[in-house]
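ingest -> fold -> write
write: protein_1
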Amino acid sequence: MLFYSPLLRCYLFLETRLSVPQLVDTHVHLNFSTFQDDLEGISRAWRDAGVVRLVHSCVEPTEFSGIQALADRFPELSFAVGLHPLDVEKWGDHTAAEILALARSDARVVAIGETGLDFYKADNQAQQRLVFEAQLAIAQSLDLPVIIHCRDAAAQMADWLGAFFAQRGSLKGVMHCWSGTPEETQWFLDLGLHVSFSGIVTFKNAAQVHASAQMVPSDRLLIETDCPFLAPVPKRGDRRNQPAYVRYVAERVAQLRGVSVEAIAQQTTANACQLFNLSVPPI
């Protein structure tokens, strides 16, 4: 259960009273060096934008203590632990046990990841599959969702996830920063996964992402920034993305789906709370 200080609770209450929709940014990397000097200002900005919860992803287990420190500092932050597919060379004999122990060590851990497949920058497919499936097993053993990175690997991802589910049983998860085609999107919806859209959905020429954002069922839809990457329109010129900008993602998804921003905020916040077992301050 997340507890807010009286000052933060009052602040968030005032924000919602002013009709700022409550938003959840389901994928951030605030531990990156680009945020070191002004995190207090960044946090004020996300609170002003109505962001009431954030899920911090993890690139490798050595980040864990630093992410914990951020969660100590910002109580609206929950986090994951895992190993990114572009870092699978760091996987060793004890890595699975380390991830499992870290996930069990802190109740603020709400997911395993990010893990997955990336065949755009690396071709070590067999090794990536081994590490990915090991983390799927960890998530399954802890009944936690998995945060999935998938780049230029949708067909293999769908096949390998399907095989894992058939052999071991399904699990919860999200295809994060999704940029696949509608056909690929359907593959992962059929596997029971959530789909999260980032600033890419605001890009003018991202037609297939626009189509995917229109087809995802309301109860499987999430939004994120993946900050500091992929600043959305109209902030494309900024040197970094930040959690406050998730509202631009919400606005574009709402436009594409023909609904209000408030409806998208309410639905995606409810979905994030359900998937990651989060709570938000009452309105």
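write: protein_2
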Amino acid sequence: MHAIPHQAEKTSSLTLLHNIPMFAGTPDVQLEQLARMAVHRKVKRHTTIVRAGDSTDSLFVIMSGRAKVLNRDTEGREVILTVLGVGECFGEMALIDGSPRSADVIAEENCDLLAIARGDFTRALAGNVNLCLNIMKSLVLRLRDANQKIESLALMDVYGRVAKLLFDSSVEEYGLRVIRRKVSKQDMAKMVGASREMVSRVMKDLEQRGYISVEAGRIVLNEN
């Protein structure tokens, strides 16, 4: 495998940072400095990138691939909090309050990551009000998402939680709601707090009733 030239890495990093909502409004000179100081990391599928309880030293930006954020209980049971894709970040909460990592982050696919050291990120925050506001917006969105998940766990049955997960995971494509990325029944179960067998039964029922269709590896949500 050929190494990526340093200038090419810098250009790629700068382009990615420009397209991340968190860095909207950040002056180019600061983004260029972050891109220059950032470290590129390649991780293979199923690699644990960070572990809950680890000390915090970097903010990570996903350049390619996907990663899932999860927690485990003392018996090893897992709950998936969210799945992150290209341009999304993780680690900013711990950088702000200095606490250890709050969850495991595991590569769902082979990933290219951009790691921004805590010192560089803190200096960027100190000199940019827009970046501080964007961080606050990001944290508020995560809090709202967490509140919605808690509400669905408390008020919805498994059928409703699976239906909500399917809708939230879908995107509009030529007038249809489509789930492009493949999600295993096991991972769906970890997202909705149910057994794999129960999720399989719900998915089968949704398909039999015509609410969803599985076509060429994707799921289409049908209007009835």
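write: annotation protein_2
The helical segments are 6-18, 28-37, 92-97, 118-126, 129-155, 158-169, 185-192, 196-208.
Residues 1-5 have pLDDT under 50 and may be disordered.
pipeline exit 0
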